[in-house]
C-alpha cells in the first residue's frame, strides 16, 4: 500500500523531505472535544482503548483537525501489566491503579510473560486503523505502534500507581536487584512479543516510551532501563515487506545519556524539552552516531499565545537549521521529527495546536527553500 505522506518514515530513516514532519505525543486525547464525546460513548478510557472500532475513531480525530504526518495507535502502555493479571483500573482524575502490585517475592515469582491472547484488542485496533487510514486506494500517513519500556512498566507494576518518587520500585531495585531483574526479564519478553505482534498487525514504526528512565542515577540507567530496551530492540523485526520499521526510543530526562541511547539499536532518539535538538545533533555527530531526533516543544508552552507558540516552534527549527546536517545531500532539518517533549496536557486549547502545527509546516518549508 503506497503512502500519500511518507515524511515521518523518511525523517526517521534520515532521508530528505520537503518539510519537517510533525506528530504529537498523546495527540488523541482529552484536549479534543470529539475525543471526549467518543470516550463518553465508550463509558471509560479503558473501555475505549479495548474497543477497536472506537479506538480507531479517536486515532483518526487529530489527523482530521491538524496537518499531522503520523497516526499513533490509541492505547496505553499499561495494557501489558494488565494482561499479566495485575488488575488495571483508571480512577477518574487519579490516573492508573493496579489492584495486585508486585510488592513481595511471591508476587514477583508468580509473574508470567503477558499472554498475547489477552491483548488481541490491541492488534485488532492496529489492523482496523490501517484500514481506516486508506483514502482513494492509498494510505494517508504511517501508523506508529508503541509500548512502555521494561523499566517504566516495572515502575507502575511495583508501585501499583503513578508516584512522585516511585520509592517502592527504586527500593526494590537497590535492595532486591534479583527481584527487579525477574520483573525486567518478564517485561523484555512481553514488550518484544507485543511490539512484534503490532508489526504483524500493521504498525509501520515502533516507539518505546521510557517515561521514568530519568529517575535513575547515571550508571543505573544504562544497566537497568537502557539495557532492557536494548534487549527488546535486539528481538524486534526491523523490516516488513521490504520497508524498514524505524524504532524510536524516548527516555524522559535522557538528554544527558544521548550517546548511550544512540547505541541501543534505535533509529530515532526522542528528546524532552530540557534537551536542545541542535546541541543533541552536534553531540551525536561528534561521536559518529548520526541518529535522527524527535522532539521537543515544551507541551506547557502551548499555554502561551498563538504568536508566542509560533515563535517558540521557530526557535527549535532555526537552531537546527544552523547546525550541521546528517550527511551530504541532506538539509540540516532532515532527520528531525517535530514533536512535543512529552504528552500534551488535557487543558490545552485545540486552536493553539493549530498554531503549532501550521508554523512547523510553513517555517520548515521556508527554511529548506532559503
Ligand atoms: O499518543 C497517543 O495519542 C497514543 C495514546 C497513548 C496514551 N497513553 C493514551 C492515554 C500513549 C502513547 C500513552 C502512553 C503512556 N501511558 C505513557 C507514556 C508516555 C507518557 O505520557 O509519559 C504513560 C506513562 C502512560 C500511563 C498513563 N495512562 C497515565 C499515567 C495516565 C493517566 C494520566 C493522564 O495523563 O491522564 C494514562 C491515561 C491515558 N492514556 C489517557 C490517554 C488519552 C487519558 C485517559 C482518559 O481519557 O481519561
Automatic annotation (TrEMBL):
Reaction(s) catalysed (UniProt annotation): uroporphyrinogen III + 4 H(+) = coproporphyrinogen III + 4 CO2
This enzyme's EC code(s): 4.1.1.37
Entry's transmembrane regions: none
InterPro entries per UniProt: UROD/MetE-like_sf (IPR038071), Uroporphyrinogen_deCO2ase_HemE (IPR006361), Uroporphyrinogen_deCOase (IPR000257)
Residues the record lists as binding substrate: 26-30, 76, 156, 211, 342
GO molecular function annotations of the record: uroporphyrinogen decarboxylase activity
Compartment list: Cytoplasm
Any one cellular-component term (Gene Ontology): cytosol
Alphabetized PROSITE patterns for the sequence: UROD_1 (PS00906), UROD_2 (PS00907)
Family indicated by similarity: Belongs to the uroporphyrinogen decarboxylase family.
Function: Catalyzes the decarboxylation of four acetate groups of uroporphyrinogen-III to yield coproporphyrinogen-III.
Protein name according to UniProt: Uroporphyrinogen decarboxylase
Amino acid at each position: 500500500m503506497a503512502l500519500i505522506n511518507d515524511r515521518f518514515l523518511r525523517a526517521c530513516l534520515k532521508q530528505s523531505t520537503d518539510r519537517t514532519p510533525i506528530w504529537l505525543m498523546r495527540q488523541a486525547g482529552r484536549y479534543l472535544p470529539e475525543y471526549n464525546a467518543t470516550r463518553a460513548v465508550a463509558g471509560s478510557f479503558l473501555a475505549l482503548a479495548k474497543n477497536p472500532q472506537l479506538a480507531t475513531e479517536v486515532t483518526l480525530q487529530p489527523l482530521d483537525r491538524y496537518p499531522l504526518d503520523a497516526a499513533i495507535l490509541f492505547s496505553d502502555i499499561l495494557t501489558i501489566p494488565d494482561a499479566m493479571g495485575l488488575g488495571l483500573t483508571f480512577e477518574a482524575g487519579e490516573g492508573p491503579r493496579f489492584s495486585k502490585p508486585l510488592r513481595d517475592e511471591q508476587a514477583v515469582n508468580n509473574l508470567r510473560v503477558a499472554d498475547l491472547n489477552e491483548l488481541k484488542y490491541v492488534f485488532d485496533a492496529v489492523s482496523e486503523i490501517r484500514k481506516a487510514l486508506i483514502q482513494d486506494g492509498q494510505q494517508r500517513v504511517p501508523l506508529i505502534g508503541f509500548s512502555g519500556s521494561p523499566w517504566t512498566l516495572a515502575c507502575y507494576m511495583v508501585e501499583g500507581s503513578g508516584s512522585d518518587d516511585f520509592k517502592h520500585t527504586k527500593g526494590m531495585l537497590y535492595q532486591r536487584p534479583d527481584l527487579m531483574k525477574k520483573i525486567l526479564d518478564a517485561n523484555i519478553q512481553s514488550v518484544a512479543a507485543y511490539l512484534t505482534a503490532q508489526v504483524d498487525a500493521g504498525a509501520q514504526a515502533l516507539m518505546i516510551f521510557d517515561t521514568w528512565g530519568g529517575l535513575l542515577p547515571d550508571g543505573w540507567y544504562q544497566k537497568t532501563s537502557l539495557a532492557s530496551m536494548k534487549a527488546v530492540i535486539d528481538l524486534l523485526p526491523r523490516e516488513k515487506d521490504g520497508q524498514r520499521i524505524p524504532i524510536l526510543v524516548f527516555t524522559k530526562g535522557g538528554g544527558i545519556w544521548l550517546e548511550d541511547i544512540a547505541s541501543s539499536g534505535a533509529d530515532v532518539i526522542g528528546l524532552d524539552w530540557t534537551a536542545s535538538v541542535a546541541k543533541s545533533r552536534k553531540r551525536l555527530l561528534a561521536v559518529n552516531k548520526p541518529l535522527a531526533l524527535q522532539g521537543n516543544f515544551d507541551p506547557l508552552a502551548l499555554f502561551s499565545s498563538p504568536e508566542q507558540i509560533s515563535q517558540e516552534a521557530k526557535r527549535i527549527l532555526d537552531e537546527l537549521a544552523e547546525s550541521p546536517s546528517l550527511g551530504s545531500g541532506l538539509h540540516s532539518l532532515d532527520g528531525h521529527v517535530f514533536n512535543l517533549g512529552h504528552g500534551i496536557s488535557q487543558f490545552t486549547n485545540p486552536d493553539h495546536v493549530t498554531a503549532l502545527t501550521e508554523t512547523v509546516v510553513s517555517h520548515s518549508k521556508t527554511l529548506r527553500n532559503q
